[in-house]
Alpha/beta fold hydrolase (Streptomyces pathocidini), 402 residues
Amino acid sequence: MGEKTAGNAIAAAAEAAGPGWRRAGVAAGIAGAAIGVVAAGAAAGVAIERLTVGRDVRRKARLALDAAGPYGELRGTPGRATADDGTQLYYEVDEVASEGGESPRRRRLFGRRKPAPVTVVFCHGYCLNQDSWHFQRAALHGVVRTVHWDQRSHGRSARGMAQADGNPVTIDRLGRDLKTVLDAAAPEGPVVLVGHSMGGMTVMALAAHYPEYIRERVAAVALVGTSAGKLGEVNYGLPVAGVNAVRRFLPGVLKALGSQVDLVERGRRATADLFAGLIKRYSFSSRDIDPAVARFAERMIESTPIDVVAEFYPAFQEHDKSEALAAFTDLPVLVLAGTEDLVTPSTHSEAIAELLPDAELVLVPDAGHLVMLEHPETVTDRLADLLARAGTGAARQAVRAP
């Protein structure tokens, strides 16, 4: 039943797109077949599960996981910043607690070292939200001042005003959004920028457009599971024929599906089991991932409307910020990725490290794209090391500050 609903959604989207899409029915079919290659492994697991577990039981299990997992419940002082096109961007600030300097958590993170007096700004990835940094936020809570924000059209931020007017999303636009949030949430003092996937690209775009801000305000940078460009060459673990079909037809399919939001969203809900398998495959590598964590990631991704998915996808094919990395040359930089990342492969992090030879490159074994959720201790420990190293940079920025 679920698969028929998804198929009807694709057919209706193609019909709504007009005669051109009806003539392209064969092309859409090829794209569907290519996407089916991605789904095959997950679908097999789902089919086996259905032989032994009823849909009601699976639904109750998901509800139980939602109730059991405390993930995504951390909240800070809310704020809103207005982007240059009028979009309202939501952020939260976690201040340093009065006892933060002597807390057991601070000692576990930093030992005898002193964390830099900075504001750490976390930027999340595509189809996620600020809660994707749950473990790192919990570890740093009250110890270091942190800012967590939702990219436009994600989480609690408003839908992009420019996109409502028909303008495409670009990574450059996201870089300007980040500058808006920084001006509102961290108007003074040194900052450390942490970006995962699309968030890392956002940090690079900030450097491309505001290199003086990097020189004057940024004490350190962490780029997690991200890429400086050439994403059009990623094969997502597909055979050559499958990935070529996806690259050719997926943008058009997404655009057509984005015009039939209500119908497609019903299809997504009906095929929740299948997409849960896909999300797990492309988010994690470990076999023993906590089911509540996997469900947490699934909820974040499910909450991103299909038209937002369609709006953002083309931006990644055009993304190229290799030259912007030069702005980070004199800063402490952490480049971290999972060795089994199928979305932004670790080779892309290695390419970044080659352009920043003084950066610390960390490749986490048995880790997928959501490495900060899959191996939170490793990511948190490396961030703590970065903050300790950022002390020198923070002192330098303080001297430069008016």
About this structure: The first strand starts at residue 77 and ends at 82.
